[in-house]
Structures are given as structure tokens and as C-alpha cells.
Amino acid sequence: MQVGATQKVCQLTGDADHQFKPARPTVSQTATTWGLSGTDNGYSFLFGGKLWFLFGDSPPTPTFNGQPNTQTDSPRTPVDNDAIAFSAPHWTGDCPKLGFVPNSNGAFTSPVVTTAAGQAPVTLRTNEVPIAGVGVNGQMYVIFGTDNPASNPPGGTSSPNGGPMRAVVGVLQDPASLQFKYLYDLSKPPNGRFIFVAIAPGPNGYLYLWGSEGGQTGYRHSPLFLARKRAATIGQPGGMQYFRGFDSHRRPLFGGTESTAVPLFSDAPQCVGEHSVQWNPYVARWVLLYNCADTTATNPRGIWMRTATQAWGPWSAPQTVFATSSGLCAFIHRAVTAANPKCDDLSGPNRMNVQGGDYSPFIIPSFTTGGGGRSTIYYTLSTWNPYQVVIMSTTIKRGSS
Q1: How far is residue 229's CA from residue 140's CA, in Å, rounded to a whole number?
Q2: Which of 36, 151, 212, 397 could be joined to 125 by an S-S link, Cβ 3.0–4.6 Å?
Q3: Buried b (16+ CB within 10 A) or exposed e, 111-129
Q4: For residue range 11-43, what is the model confidence (pLDDT) as tens digits?
């Protein structure tokens, strides 16, 4: 696959895009309009005629509409700190304008996953986030990551390297309050290989799920796995089929045991964390994007892409579609050191020595365009310092392979 131009399209969250001088106001003004100062992730899917975005840890503004709005101020709860937004479903050429479900003071509401008595609670604290979503038969289903071993009790701190260890499936019960009902565990220790997932419809009524590991050791240090489940049964436990290799005729084999799932490919070292997958009809390939913090002889660190004609592969060698270094001093802050003077206005004064980064490249399926074996894909990308989400675009072209 030939990779063409990659560019930042717009800043999706926050109030001001400080890449520009003077800073440009964002379309959504999420701090002023919704009390959301920063966030990350942004996995998107279509449901009910809208495009929904699942955001991760979302610090609120200290006040909103003249009322306290911190994480410990009612109606917020310290164990639920994420956000879900929506916009028009298709690319219009302008940055999407986000809407949020408001709480009682008009600021954004955080999703809550309710469980029955005796069930393990689903907390959504630091690095416990909505992972992926899908609409099936008029219902919204969201996979949430929880049980981050590094997440301390409310009010404590947490390790930036911690990740969720359990993924659960919830169904939206009350759209007015973003209450989800816990349905079942999708993946958990000791063989949790589908903690971070990407979901896409496949043939014969299946949903395909590509998964990676979580926890302290697997988070962003995982291979990629594949499973499938009948779309009509996504609301019911059981029935997951895990890809476990090929038969003697190179036909894919699926089994019902998660521990038998085999990696689809291998990076050295393994580096899959947050990822997204889309069937792209313009290049007739499955397109996978994932963030990799490694630098190899052929690929600098950043956002890597692989492609395949089948969901199970064989997957192409990785290509860097966005190098972290190309975003520094532009929309990713470069840490100020003795060797590197200040080159941007992206960081607050207390974080000038904090190097920015990029992660969570989530393809926005309904924005993809193309023709003639060429396609432009749009995807959300999270930046660490500043802590915001931008939209990127990359043009790809199908080669002879």
C-alpha cells in the first residue's frame, strides 16, 4: 500500500488551537460550552443517525455556569470521569461540531455502567474508559475497560502506564443520563486478549473484533488478536469465536476458548495498544491503525498502518503514516530542555518539560472517501501535552500487492 500525504485537519476538543498564532477557536468550544477542558481517545461509530465519539479521561473545568464542576462536585462522581459526544454523521469539509448529553448544570455528563447486586462494579477512573461501540438492532452497545490495577481509590493518583484488565459489554439504557447496563465480561484475566478492541461488521452476519491486552504488562505491549461474534447476539454472553490459526489448506480456524487465540502478526518488540480497523472498499483492504512507541530501521515511532484482504491476514508489514517527530512544535509539544529551546505555545507553564506524544488513532468510518484505488481516511488522534483530540487525514493508494 502506498502512503501519501498525512495532515492534521482540525482540533476536535478544547477551546483554542494553539498551533496557530494567534490561537484559533475550535468549532466545538468544549470547555466554554460543555465544561470539558481536555480529553483523549475518540473511538467513533454510527448509531441513530448520529456519529458518536467515545472519549477517555475527561477533566472538567473547575466551574461551569457559575457552579462547581470538579470531579468531586455533584452530580459528578469520582469513579466516572469519561465523556461521550455526538455529531452529524458524515464529513462536511468542516471540523465536526460536538454535542454532549448535559447534566443538571449544563456541563457534559459522564457515562455510568450500572450492575446488579453482587456483580463486580464497573469503575471508569483513570485509564478506565469506553473502548469501542457499535449499534445493532436499534441498541447502542459499548465496550468499557475497567479494573486498572494502577488506579487508586477516588482522590488518589494513578500510574500513567496502567491499563484496564477487564473489558465489559454494556447497553445504553437511559440516553438522557448516559446510563449503561452491564451485560457481561468480554475479556478478563488470566487470558484477557480483547481488553482493547476495534469492532467492524464482517460477512455472514458477524461482527469482527480485533483485540489487544491490557494491565501493567500488556498495555501497549501486545500483539493483535481476532475474534468474531454474531451481530444479533452481541447483547448476550457466550458465542465468541477466536481465531486460532489455519488448517492445512490455509483456511481460518475459530474456536470458543480465548486462550487459544493466536497473534495475527508480530512486532519486535510487541507494541499494539489502542487501535482501529476498517474495511476500506476503495482500496479493497482491511486497514489497521495503531500507535507504536518503537522506532525500527524501517519505521519511526508514531502511528503505524497494516493492511490485509482478509480479517485474519496475512497482514502487510507496518508503515508509519504519522511520525511523532513530525508533530513536534506544531500540534504536539516538544519538551523544553537545555538542548531544545521553547518552540511552541502548546503547553501550560507547569508542563513545559513534559514531552508530548500521540496515540489512539481511531478511524472515523463514515468520513472515508475515495475512488480509483485511492482513499483518504480520517481518524481521531490523541495528543499528550496538549491533552486534546485532533482529526487527521491520510491518503493511501492500492499497489500491485
Answers
A1: 16
A2: 151
A3: bbbeeeeeeeebbbbbbbb
A4: 999 999 999 999 999 999 999 999 999 999 999
